[in-house]
Amino acid sequence: MQENVLLQMRQIEKSFPGVRALGGVDFTLRKGEIHALMGENGAGKSTLIKILTGVYHMDSGEVRVEGEKVSIHSPQDAQNKGISTVYQEITLCPNITVAENMFIGREKGIWINHKEREKRADEILGKLGIPARAKQQLGSCSLAVQQMVAIARAVDMQCKVLILDEPTSSLDDKEVKMLFDLMRDLKSRGVGIIFVTHFLEQVYEVSDRITVLRNGELVGEYLTEELPQVELVSKMIGKELEELSSMGEGDDKNAEAGEIFYEAEGLSSSETYPFNFNIRKGEVNGFTGLLGSGRSESVRAIFGADKVGGGSVKIKGKPVKITKPIDAMKNGIGYLAEDRKRDGIIAELSVRENIILALQVMNGMFKPISRSEAEAFADEYIKVLNIKTASRETPVGSLSGGNQQKVILARWLLTHPDYLILDEPTRGIDVGTKLEIQKLVLKLAEEGVSVTFISSEVEEMLRTCSRLIVMRDKHIVGELKGSDLNQTQVMKTIAGGEA
Amino acid sequence: MKNGKRNIFKGGLGQLTIPIVSICLLLLFNLIKGLITKDLSFFSIELVRNNFGNMVLSGNLISIINGASELAVLAMGMTLVTAACGGQDISVGAAAAIAGSMFVKVVKTGSSISGMKVLLAFLAACMIACLFAAFNGTLVAVFKIQPMIATLILYTCGRSIAYWINGGATPTVSSPIISGIGSFIPGVPIPTPVIIVVVMAIIFKLVFHFTSIELFTQSVGINGSAARLNGINSTFIKLLSFIILGVCVAVAGTIGVSRLGLINHETLLLDVEMDTILAVAIGGNSLGGGKFKISGSIIGAYVIQTLTITLYAMKVSSTDVKAFKAIVIIILVVIGSPVVKTWFGKFVGKYFKKNKQLAVKGAE
Amino acid sequence: MENSKIRKREPLTDTQLLMTITIGIFITMYAVAMIALQGGFLHAQQIFDMLNDNAPLIIVSCALTIVMIGGGIDISVGAVTSLTVMACVLYLNNGGNILVSVLLAIGIGLAFGLVQGFLISYLEIQPFIVTLAGLFFARGMTTILSVNPQKAEHAAFNKLREVQFVIPWLGYTARNGNVVPARIELGVLVAILCVVLVFIMLRYMKLGRNFYALGGNQQSALMLGINVKRTRFMSYILSGLLSGISGYVFMLHTGAGNATNAAGMEMNAIASSIIGGTLLTGGVGNVIGTFFGTLTLTTIKKIVVSSGLNDPWWQSITTGGMLCFFIILQSVVLSRRAKKKSA
Questions:
Q1: What is the pLDDT of residue C36?
Q2: Contact A323/B at CB under 8 A
Q3: Which of A118, B329, C117, C321 could cysteine-pair with C133, CB 3.0–4.6 Å?
Q4: Is B286 on the interface with A (CB under 8 A)?
Q5: Which domains does chain C carry?
Q6: CATH label, B2-312, candidates 1.10.1330, 1.10.3470, 1.10.150, 1.20.120
Q7: What's the mean pLDDT in A270-280?
Q8: Which residues contact A106 (CB under 8 A, 6 or more apart)?
């Protein structure tokens, strides 16, 4: 057993200002195994990976490779110690050839022997069964093949530990199969693979062992065949099954709401398959599913945030066309995006400017909100939502995550939407603020606003939603309401029905 | 902590600190030099009678303010383009030559030069400048080409187009109206270009007051993705910023032509694009786009002109000025470089570490 | 899909595709000019003249190509060329030595490359601003050295200037019956040597391939283990070096220093690189393409003149149109690549 251990991480701790990302996590990887690292947002898996690859430095703990204690300072350092990583976003250069991508940056000397390089590259590609040619420009390969080239590079660098960080999220079924074949091949050569993914089925298809993290703590290490899918989900989300069943859920929330406000049939965007969806006036419903299941993409399609594919949309029974965000806004829809930093805040602008932005856009360019009016709005919402900021002129980027989120909420509330889409409004913010936001959602519904709520925490959704649309692998796989609305049922549906 | 640091560095003026401090330093330098040499003529302003018999203001300070007019007008427009697109238009000089040529062409049609015709000529200049600006804007906003490269096209051929408009001549225009625009209006002692700059600045202020262009432009420049999800049409905003720059170019071209009373496509506002970009940078605006202050760019324009005139006053020839300007630019950008700031921060951090720890203890 | 995998020949890379387009356009254009305009276009000397006149431009275009492949820009090249000419002429006229004058030219170029490269790579200041300052500084220094044109009056140097390679069989018979042999100046050989060396560097040296990786994706280049800062630094040093050499070649051609020498050369060099298929965003390009880009640019100007568009503005207007065409072409190629990626 002991000599079989390739990599051992013990009592890894890592804190960022104000957050404890990892609190004493252990992780063990053996030779020739595929080890899935699972956890929801904020569980700490990416922090753990980044410590292993030298992007972050741990506060305390130790890392041993083949029993030898090592300290990793940089990605280069990690590679030299036999730890290679292939990221979801390809970290190769698309403008040069496959062979060059495999060898650049790791050869000594001044000159390049292209012939020899290409010969070797073709050999390796052939050995691993990767359908790429050495002389091909990398950018002309499909994403899956590019990823495999990155793996080939790692293999040729004599890597012992291969980390695959969400490698399958942009691949189709056929490509995933090719990748898995490659992974099994590497496994048989004794490489230890750490597989990070959010696709449950893939975990069961390819992995031997699973380590689950939650909130920066180790939940446990399991053999894949001994851990049923439902149990895995509950371990990731954080409720034991028995406990779940005994919990009373499904008190009648606003199930009997008013007439249908929004209705979509066969709606699709460049990122989703066609789906049907509706919401009533004053209803709170939610899209649930694991990260990457297509829940965010679906609401983005509703808001017209991605290129619209097709389908028909009715608002209050009248057909409307929503092809870009402004169309949705004019129809009374507001959308709080999942990625607050990238799609939400305008960091360098003040709290005031951020709050009035959406309303200003709806008013149009020639009806500016006067300074005094804007200040009044800002002050009002700073008070109502209890936003903690030095002043309304503070740049929003300098606020804490929770307060930034409240500013964006204020932005949409100010437009007095009929229908508000909140994608992960509670991610990465403190518990108090989470509760405040949940209460706010319910209060809005009482006032007749329809709300679609997305959260990684099922508990939170059960508390607020009267109907849950469950998604898995980009498809809607179920709709739960009434008595079905409990954690056990949700997890069963997410995991795939069989208990 | 961070706020405290920011206050030390930027004072109460925020973004305007650098341009204001630089202009003060330049004036101080001249003052000290004046005191040492006992010659304060640099600062003297007097009323003199000019060739046309008007009482007008004259002196080094006046010529700084007057001479920077075109630059200030262009800097206003350039600030918007920079903010929205995160890049700069290097064709402003060439475009101004085109606008100036158009202005002269329209003025020269027919025999007499009336006020109406000058206005018409200016509108024609505006039209053609906006047309070319729209061309640049389309390349940038629709084809997503970097602004500097997209405007390289007009930079290459703009002055030739200007030459073409006037059929290969460098015609002169002389009329009291034109010289009124370029130098002084009878009875007004302030140079007209200065008045135009003030008017333009007021127009910008009003436009920002009565529309939300400022907010939208900054949003597009800082975070294009978020701006889009909030319903802002970023293509339109970028195009608009170029059109506004087009108007500024027409105004600058008109001033330039009127000042000399002739259009010379080769020399009109030569190298002004470089100075304009510099004015925007000195004004504390990020050349990568985002938050901006027009007032900063205007002061930046005056900083550059003050520097130039100061160097002239030191008997540096007009051709050599560039070398000194380059040194000043490098000093400014090196001070502003994030890397240098971090180094400096570390240095300051080490030096004051003890004090800080004491302060923290005291606070506890 | 499956078929394409079996196909024997590799599809062209972006670099090859853009280069092929340029060479194709150049040959077509020249052929059309030979048929339609005849005259000088039928003589080999036409091409040699273009090379004789534009040897410095070819060299600085190589410099720009290197920098642009690395994802940067250098607009100081023309001004450095001009400064080099002035400095070398003054040095020679004050009784200098030819060998030292060559070293002086290279030294000036390297000095600019070093300082600009340091500011851009290690202090992370925008390349446009730094090289703009470099342009101002070099132009200012040129006039500080001398406002008036300076003719080289150094006997040995003027001998060197006279060196020409004569190829009689490529000559033509002038109207008066004299046979005029084809002539190539020394500078052209230097320029072609530069093109060849830069080609070898970009193709067969690790450094050259690192430029491509840097321009392709800086973040990836870092992850692939390339020293990004040093690579970028090197690109500006090479650019400075080539500008210095270009200055010496310029001097060989004109034999005089003048403050207005090489005015606007930086923009012509950028245009040549773009026309030659160097992508503005970096990572794609080739000096052979750039060489033909320069020829295309000069041919267009010659054609404009020969076809009777004598008005002085037509040259730059056609250059602008040409540039516009190639920039939009690149934009299309880029978006095609992006689409492929997302599909």
A1: 86
A2: no
A3: B329
A4: no
A5: 14-26+36-302+310-331 (1.10.3470)
A6: 1.10.3470
A7: 89
A8: A157, C224, C225
